[in-house]
Every structure is written in structure tokens, then in C-alpha cells.
Design a protein that fits this description.
Strand order of the largest sheet: 1-2-10-5-12-4-3
Number of helices: 6
Distance between the termini: 21 Å
Largest sheet: 7 strands, mixed
Structural class: alpha+beta
Mean pLDDT: 91
Strand content: 15-25%
Low-confidence stretches: none
Length: about 240
């Protein structure tokens, strides 16, 4: 796939030309997302069509991929999937290949939705990145930080959360927001234009952790449309 189409001036994304450049380039100067655009060989749709997912997520290992009855194009796609996992594993990561018909949703959503369909940032206690590649189906999208509003900073939302907390807007309230991941979720500002990750492209995005040199990347998972085939996603 071609390089992602960036809306206007978008300094927070760096497009690279190789896996080596993707893993070796540090996040700096406000850049919090890197993309290696790729045109991948193989029929990934055929792979997805042979995987039974049900209502949720199926994690697919190499043995299951090797056991599928596929055409030459389908087998070529399998080789790509296995090679990408090998690259990330050799880099010290733990990649997972998921076939996704849908993520869990809150049964009774509160003032801040905390599922992955909402714009959010990933967090960690130590230095970390998130790696993503969509091989088939709708892909994730990101929002530049300048166009993202943290939900807990919206006065009406904060007031409702404070009412639920039953205390003062102090350090203990901040701990409450963090404990429930409310402070990790965002909404798009008026006029915001998200960037679609696209299929085949390998992304590395910044995570919220103590001492990070850049702000975390605000992103969200795509909605699965009823009746469509599941999404095939590599994540680490």
C-alpha cells in the first residue's frame, strides 16, 4: 500500500522505508507514530475465510496457519504472516495474530467509554511501543494530539465522574481516573481529520509511560460492519 495520506501538515508521523529503520529510529521531536508502507503479496482474504472466529477474537498460531488448505496466493499470504511475526520476535517482541469479528463492549457505558473503539492511548509502566499491522479488513486510525480532547477534561464529563467518585478534585480523584483508565480516552475536536492506518502497512506507535520523550499516539480500532468478514490484525 502507498504511504498513508496525511491531512495537511502532519509532523507527528514519520514514514520509513524498511523494518530496520522502523525499529532503530527513536521517537523524538514530537513524532509519535512511524509507518513502513508495504505492498504485500498473497491473498489474505482467503486466509480469513478459512478461520472460524465466532463472535469475538481468535488468536491464530503458525501451526493453524500451516494447516489451512489454501491456493498458492493464500500460502503466500501465510508466509508473510509468519515472516512478520519472526521479525518482531527477533526484535524481542511478542506479536499476536488475531482474527477479529468484534471487541468486547461495555454493557452499561458510563460518561467515558473505555473500549478500544473509542480514541485512546496505550499505557505502560516502563518503556514500550505498540506495533500494528492490518492484513485484511478495516484498519485502525489515529488522531493528531492537537486535534484530540481528553474526555476527563471536558467539564460536564469531569463533573459526572467527580459525582460518581464522591470526593474532591484532588490527587485521589486523579488516581481514581487512572485506575479506571478514564484518563486514557479522548474525543476528536471539531474538524479533526483522522489518519487511516491502511492494510499491509506496519506501524509503530508511542505509548504513555513515565519519561516518554513524546506524547502517546491517540488511536482507535475500527468498527466491524455486520456481515463482513473478520479483520486480520498483527499486534504487539
Amino acid at each position: 500500500m502507498a504511504a498513508p495520506q496525511l491531512p495537511g501538515d502532519y509532523p507527528r508521523i514519520k514514514v520509513v522505508g524498511s523494518f530496520h529503520e522502523l525499529v532503530s529510529t527513536p521517537f523524538a521531536d514530537g513524532i509519535n507514530a512511524m509507518c513502513w508502507p508495504r505492498e504485500l503479496a498473497g491473498d489474505f482474504r482467503e486466509v480469513v475465510e478459512q478461520i472460524v472466529v465466532g463472535d469475538g477474537i481468535a488468536t491464530i498460531d503458525e501451526a493453524r496457519l500451516r494447516g489451512l488448505s489454501l491456493s498458492a496466493a493464500g500460502r503466500a499470504a501465510v508466509e508473510v504472516l509468519i515472516e512478520d511475526q519472526r521479525l518482531l520476535t527477533e526484535h524481542g517482541l511478542a506479536p499476536i495474530l488475531d482474527c477479529i469479528s468484534g471487541y468486547p463492549r461495555e454493557e452499561e457505558p458510563g460518561p467515558v467509554p473505555i473500549d478500544v473503539y473509542d480514541f485512546h492511548v496505550d499505557s505502560a509502566t516502563t518503556e514500550a511501543d505498540t506495533w500494528l499491522c492490518t492484513y485484511f479488513g478495516p484498519s485502525s486510525e489515529l488522531l493528531r494530539n492537537e486535534q484530540a480532547i481528553r474526555r476527563v477534561d471536558i467539564p460536564a464529563t469531569r463533573a459526572e465522574l467527580l459525582r460518581q467518585f464522591g470526593g474532591s478534585d484532588d490527587e485521589s480523584f486523579a488516581e481514581f481516573l487512572n485506575e479506571h483508565c478514564f484518563d486514557l480516552h479522548y474525543t476528536a475536536a471539531p474538524g479533526a481529520v483522522p489518519v487511516v492506518f491502511g492494510t499491509g502497512n506496519l506501524w509503530r506507535i508511542a505509548v504513555d509511560y513515565p519519561g516518554s520523550p513524546v506524547p502517546p499516539c491517540v488511536h482507535r480500532a475500527p468498527e466491524n460492519i455486520a456481515g463482513e468478514l473478520p479483520r486480520l490484525l498483527l499486534i504487539s
